[in-house]
Design a protein that fits this description.
The protein contains 10 helices and 11 strands. By secondary structure, it is an alpha/beta fold.
């Protein structure tokens, strides 16, 4: 019997414990798709990426972009958005609320967060951040079935640093003093996935609320995606349905984040604007 309280996904500690439970459950299931999710992928081979001003694309970010261009030879459409094209896409494919919510995204990171949810919900595909560099052809795994794909992460509060992602899959990893959550990079899904619908709806409500400066991480970023995941996964469990998502355990072998990029030191880096340990 599930004894979780209603709205548990909005409690930081309960949500973290639940995400940890999801990773442990996937370990015990052997990471194999079950139920209907062994079917061929319905995730389109579309790569989405974002930089707020493509007329001023830094050379080091452009190098990151170029690492993914080889996917065009694998049948991918590559769509690179900036502020202007993202605004136009949302206005053309969504309503006045979403258009207004995007206009309230006060930082390029927020606009990137919001656009990826809008695009993948509408059309499906895979989003990667501008600082990601492709390392291998492991990306094929993301397209082996129709489940939404997310990367789990863990932040160690005591040491003030991220836990290596490989450690998340150790069953004896202590949960105390750690925050378990999911990133919104990478993000791969078929069109119309209900988890993304919920995440987008939540972001829209928060952006159009009374808060003058809504927190980036919680409003459009990983915090918002983690809340949506917790709600959605719990709903599936309660209804006896198989998971229609997968937590990736080898993303670091597929792509790496470049931390020595020029924009890290100025206001283009959202952490310098808002400040965050993770």
């Amino acid at each position: 019997m599930d004894t979780r309280s209603p709205d548990f996904e909005n409690d930081d500690a309960l949500r973290s414990a639940f995400v940890r439970e999801l990773t442990l459950g996937q370990i015990r299931d052997g990471d194999e798709p079950n139920g209907n999710y062994s079917r061929a992928s319905s995730i389109p081979k579309t790569l989405i990426r974002y930089w707020h001003n493509l007329d001023e694309l830094p050379e080091d970010v452009e190098e990151c972009f170029k690492s993914w261009d080889q996917l065009s030879h694998e049948g991918f459409q590559i769509k690179t958005f900036d502020d202007q094209s993202a605004r136009a896409y949302i206005a053309a494919n969504y309503g006045l609320l979403e258009t207004a919510a995007f206009a309230r995204c006060r930082h390029p990171a927020m606009r990137s967060d919001y656009l990826r949810m809008c695009f993948i919900l509408a059309e499906g595909g895979m989003y990667v951040d501008a600082d990601d560099v492709l390392l291998s052809d492991g990306w094929r795994h993301l397209f082996r079935d129709e489940r939404l794909k997310l990367q789990p992460l863990c932040y160690d509060i005591s040491f003030g640093r991220m836990v290596p992602t490989s450690h998340l899959w150790l069953e004896d990893l202590p949960a105390e003093g750690r925050v378990f959550y999911v990133n919104n990079d990478p993000l791969a899904a078929p069109a119309g996935h209900p988890l993304l619908a919920r995440a987008l709806r939540s972001s829209t409500v928060k952006l159009l609320g009374d808060e003058e400066l809504p927190i980036i991480q919680a409003t459009t970023g990983p915090g918002n995606m983690t809340i949506a995941l917790a709600y959605h996964a719990h709903y599936l469990m309660s209804s006896g349905s198989p998971p229609d998502f997968e937590l990736l355990r080898n993303w670091d072998e597929i792509a790496e984040t470049r931390w020595d990029l020029s924009y890290r030191g100025d206001e283009r880096n959202w952490r310098n604007v808002e400040g965050s340990g993770f």
